[in-house]
Amino acid sequence: MAKRIDVSGLTAYYGSHKAIEDISMTVEPRSVTAFIGPSGCGKSTFLRTLNRMHEVTSGGRVEGKVLLDDEDLYGQGIDPVSVRREVGMVFQRPNPFPTMSIFDNVAAGLRLNGSYKKSELTDIVEKSLKGANLWNEVKDRLNKPGSGLSGGQQQRLCIARAIAVEPKVLLMDEPCSALDPISTLAIEDLIGELKERFTIVIVTHNMQQAARVSDRTAFFNLAAVGQPGKLIEIDETERIFSNPSVQATEDYISGRFG
Amino acid sequence: MDTQIKDAPPPSPQPTVAEQKRAARGATRPGDRIFLGLSRGSGILLLVIMAAIAVFLTYRASIAISKDEANFFTAFEWNTQLIPPKFGIAVLAFGTIVSSIIAMALAVPIAVAIALFLTHYAPRRLRGPIAYVIDLLAAVPSIVYGLWGALILVPHMNGLYGWLDDYFGWTGIFSWQQGAPRSMLTVGILLAIMILPIITNVSREVFRQVPQMHEEAALALGATRWEVIRMAVIPFGRSGVISASMLGLGRALGETMAVATVLSPSFDIQASLLDPGGGTFAQNIASKFGEASELGRDALIASGLVLFVITLLVNGAARMIIARRKEYSGANA
Amino acid sequence: MSTAATVSTLKGARLPKWSPYAIAAGSVALGVGISFAADLHSSIQWALIAGLLFVLGTYGIAARVEGRRQAKDRVATSLVWVAFLLAVVPLVSLVWSTVARGVKVLDFYFLTHSMGLVSDDEPGGGIYHAILGSLEQVALATLIAAPIGVLTAIYLVEYGRGRLAKAVTFFVDVMTGIPSIVAGLFILSIMLMFDMEPFGFAGSLALAILMMPVVVRSTEEMLKLVPNELREASLALGIPKWRTILKVVIPTSIGGITTGIMLAVARIAGETAPVLLLVWGNSLINANPFEGAQQSLPLYIYQQYANSAGAGAAYDRAWAASLTLIAFVMILNLVARGIARWKAPKTGR
């Protein structure tokens, strides 16, 4: 089910400002790839180009190719709506729909994509909540609003909502930055389980987190403020953290800047 | 507050915390006392005015109603010169409600659509200017709408009226006896045009406050633009739109000049919305006032009191919805 | 749904970019055609038919080519556009007809003469007396309402705690919703009590009642924008509270307060109903707002329309007066917004 991502020569703009320049990389299916780098280096922007969320912001546009199993997301006749259905996303701050119950939140994506019987819906919601390690905590209050949960639970609810539609790829934009350490640990464990089924790309500010959860790590950097962000290197996580091939990566990881 | 005081550079005569607190209450110095007195007095004056409005209107209304030989709430006539005088507000209440319902039915969906247009559909560089123009339109005086309605809109309604009569005449409420289209439907349409800017403005504000993250959540699930609006924007903005509509309704209920210029009034109830006749509280006051005797004026004041109470209820409901919405969104922050 | 993975799941059949325009053009053409064939004369009908065809056409074509979800999305888009255009038409017509018809008799003579010796159905005359009356009534109303409104807002923001403040807040809201004719009736009931004849200042009182809550609300908003740190810094310097308010809080927000007052002035300048009840109208110049009937601009428009039995000259005067009134209100609005932008507190968030 999980798909491979092949990016080549990708440049993204906000209006006339070039945010990232000429990025190429491959993300293997059923693996976790972490993006690290200093603030403003364009790692979140790059993540958002992978499901065409970048073009939602005003003036956002993209050059280059993003192949999802050999199909270009930016090719002719591609529907961004279908792209986002295949490439799910979890955001920095937990964002369950405040007016919907826990059940409806998880079912929200399914209801968009056609008609399910009530029993089917119930099954998928249960499966997704179990997949997000949230089922035991919420099974007795599925009809309560999702906004009543704790921050960590809300974030897992968002993950359940994202995996309910069975995407091929799951993008996570600093999913733990608004959470306490225990909730963070829960999410990290969950990421380890989810990679059995999905291709996962995660942006993180926390280098220990990258080291803990990812198989491969990509380091992004920018020459100066206002300059476009670039991919410095991508490699096995172990190598990046022990013996990176570029000096800037080593400097960043050892805390010499950023 | 205390930390702020500690952080501030030490003034030469350092005030104690107790002095600070007294100063904050504004009771120590004559200047403070006078200033507090003036501002509190203004607030109290406002309350006194509100009370005075209620008291005076009720007093004059009671004079009128005590002389009324008909039932003030159910009588279908307005004859204050008769001996004994007979008058009642049934026709006015009916007309006011009907015209306002038409206005709301037309204005609310269109206003919500325009608000969505301005927040989600219009090309970005047009959004600001269009919103600005709508702001200005909200400031156009109602008498100008009235003049336009009477001289431009009314002649244009003939075609629409004939059409409605042809196809929906059988319903009764859309039958037309070829009279001038100065009827409740035209009044309702004009009122809708008048309250459109205010409902649009408030709804637009509400829609703009929908957190970006909720819309992105819907987008990331693979929602089309319309689905984003249905999942994230409308549920979040619903109560705001309701209160915006109530504010518009308050305007429509009390609108005087636009109705007075467009409607061709009569003191009975028309079965059809297309036939001229009927009246509203405010229109009736404006039209009857010129020739009214003293009792006639008191009777008009009595009808104004009813209008006052109705608008108070509507506005009160709108405010309560807004207040509840604040608590609700606070709990979610 | 996605099990047929061999076929592309990302591609959906899409209508070309120009299709909404094509459908729009087609519906307009068809709408006009139908209207001609059915011999419909009203442009309102043409527009309604074209709009309906556009929405239905969009749904039909999109549903066939792109599927139901996309079709719904396109219908929503087309409905929103149609609603916007539907609303624009009357509003443009209003502005256009006021300007086009208003300029006919609007000249220096019109602005500087009254209606003395000119009967309602013959040409000539002007609005000098109405402008004079309006300016006096509005100025007096502002003199009453602005200080009371600003002081009340200061009370609510700087001092207001407890039950009195809550009551004031609530009744300010209630007052905002008072129909203008009710404010007029209130003053009228007082005048009946003392057997008074109509005069300009009575109208000012009613206008002041309508103006106060607007001033309170806008001033309150502005005072709340003044950061608390400023107040605390001043208090900590040992400056008494009332001087803090006068020297720190008010100057910081003066731009916004002025804007609010000007917008409120613009609003009451167009009020007709209370003036009709209390000031009565006058075709002659009466410069004394404290005695005798006066004229006002909105009332003049109404009387030219209502008392003239359809005379073209009176309608022309009504349009010209409307144009003058709109120009006055718009200029006030634009200047007010200009001030708001120019004086916006630099510390504001």
UniProtKB/TrEMBL annotation, chain A:
* Domain ABC transporter per the UniProt entry, residue ranges: 5-247
Enumerate the CDD domains for this protein: ABC_PstB_phosphate_transporter
- Gene3D superfamilies, per the entry: P-loop containing nucleotide triphosphate hydrolases (3.40.50.300)
State the EC number(s): 3.6.3.27
Q: Which UniProt keywords apply?
A: ATP-binding, Hydrolase, Nucleotide-binding, Translocase, Transport
Q: Which Pfam families match?
A: ABC_tran
- GO biological process entries: phosphate ion transmembrane transport
The UniProt record lists the keyword Transport: yes
Single GO molecular function: ATP hydrolysis activity
Q: Which GO terms describe its cellular component?
A: membrane
Give the enzyme class.
Answer: hydrolase
Lineage, top-rank taxon, reads: Bacteria
Q: What is this protein called?
A: Phosphate ABC transporter ATP-binding protein
What is the originating organism of this protein? Answer: Streptomyces griseorubiginosus
Gene encoding it?
Answer: pstB
UniProtKB/TrEMBL annotation, chain B:
Bilayer topology = Multi-pass membrane protein
Superkingdom, according to UniProt? Bacteria
Q: Quick one: where's region Disordered? A: 1-23
- Keyword Transport part of the UniProt annotation: yes
Specify where it is mainly localized. membrane
Q: Where is the ABC transmembrane type-1 domain?
A: 93-318
Show the Pfam families listed in the entry: BPD_transp_1
Places the protein is found: Cell membrane
Keyword list, A-Z: Cell membrane, Membrane, Phosphate transport, Transmembrane, Transmembrane helix, Transport
- What's a GO biological-process term for it? phosphate ion transport
What terms describe the molecular function in GO for this protein?
A: phosphate transmembrane transporter activity
CDD domains named in the record: TM_PBP2
Q: Which GO terms describe its cellular component?
A: plasma membrane
Spell out where the chain crosses the membrane.
43-67, 87-118, 130-154, 184-207, 299-318
Key word Iron-sulfur present:
no
Family of this protein:
Belongs to the binding-protein-dependent transport system permease family. CysTW subfamily.
So what does this one do? Part of the binding-protein-dependent transport system for phosphate; probably responsible for the translocation of the substrate across the membrane.
For this entry, the protein name equals Phosphate transport system permease protein
From TrEMBL, chain C:
Q: Which domain of life is it from?
A: Bacteria
Domain ABC transmembrane type-1, which positions?
131-336
Q: Which CDD domains match?
A: TM_PBP2
Molecular-function annotations in GO: phosphate transmembrane transporter activity
Instruction: Give the membrane topology.
Output: Multi-pass membrane protein
Entry's localization field: Cell membrane
User: What Gene Ontology terms describe where this protein resides (cellular component)?
Assistant: plasma membrane
InterPro entries (UniProt xref): MetI-like, MetI-like_sf, Phosphate_PstA, Phosphate_transprt_permease
Keywords annotated in UniProt: Cell membrane, Membrane, Phosphate transport, Transmembrane, Transmembrane helix, Transport
Q: Where is the chain membrane-spanning?
A: 21-38, 44-63, 75-96, 138-157, 169-193, 199-216, 248-270, 318-340
Q: Which GO terms describe its biological process?
A: phosphate ion transmembrane transport
Read off the PANTHER family from this record. PHOSPHATE TRANSPORT SYSTEM PERMEASE PROTEIN PSTA
Tell me its family: Belongs to the binding-protein-dependent transport system permease family. CysTW subfamily.
User: What is this protein for, i.e. what is its function?
Assistant: Part of the binding-protein-dependent transport system for phosphate; probably responsible for the translocation of the substrate across the membrane.
Q: Which NCBIfam families match?
A: 3a0107s02c
From the Swiss-Prot or TrEMBL record, give the protein name. Answer: Phosphate transport system permease protein PstA
The source organism is Streptomyces griseorubiginosus
